Fold this protein.
Amino acid sequence: MPAENRILASIPDHEKRALLPKLEGIVLRKPEVICETEQFSEYAYFPTGGLLSLLSVSEEGDLREIAAVTREGFIGPPILSDAASCPFQIVVRITGRAFRIRTRELLRACKELPGLQAALLEQTQEFVRRVCARVACHHSHTPIQRLSGWLLTVRRAIDADDFELTHETLALSLSLDRSIVTRAALELYNRRILSYHNGHVTIHDVRALQATACSCEQASSHGSDSELSPTRRDRTTATPRLS
């Protein structure tokens, strides 16, 4: 049983053995949409890398990110009912591997495997807490704090200091205008914390990014970014361009 997904790694060994034959390893590729709003979700997903974005779609068609899901969580139906429709649009933001299981199989497994059900319930509660914290964060913290926290979330999800993120994705994820994201990214660049060029982010100073990030990101982390050997790299002299 893979240990990369926190939920799958947390359940008892005998439940892992029972669940393993039902899991299928796949690659989720950016910018794939794996579920549309209010559609039947045929599969549930347990990411082991990459990052998924849950988007709320307004009546006017505007998109707003509700939460990001990484290897610490899962994408699936409400496990307290047999409902399988998805209230969000789910988009792959960063390509990564995942395990998927048919929705009906997961609901059946929850009735047979109490450890799995408890782990999914705990994660569902954590998801609600994070969504509430994000709403409060939007009103309480500066754009540079929020950008720093979100970049740490991405870094932890993929175990890398270099990754691709378009300016559009950053603005959507933070619910900010592109001009505000530009100013926040330039401030981080001027502090020599990161560089951003043509949609490519390179973090140079993880500890400084942690110090800049809002407390919401730190509280939502199940693992410490300091465990990933933060380093100070050679600085780039090019002005970051936000595309």
Summary: The two ends are 40 Å apart (CA to CA).
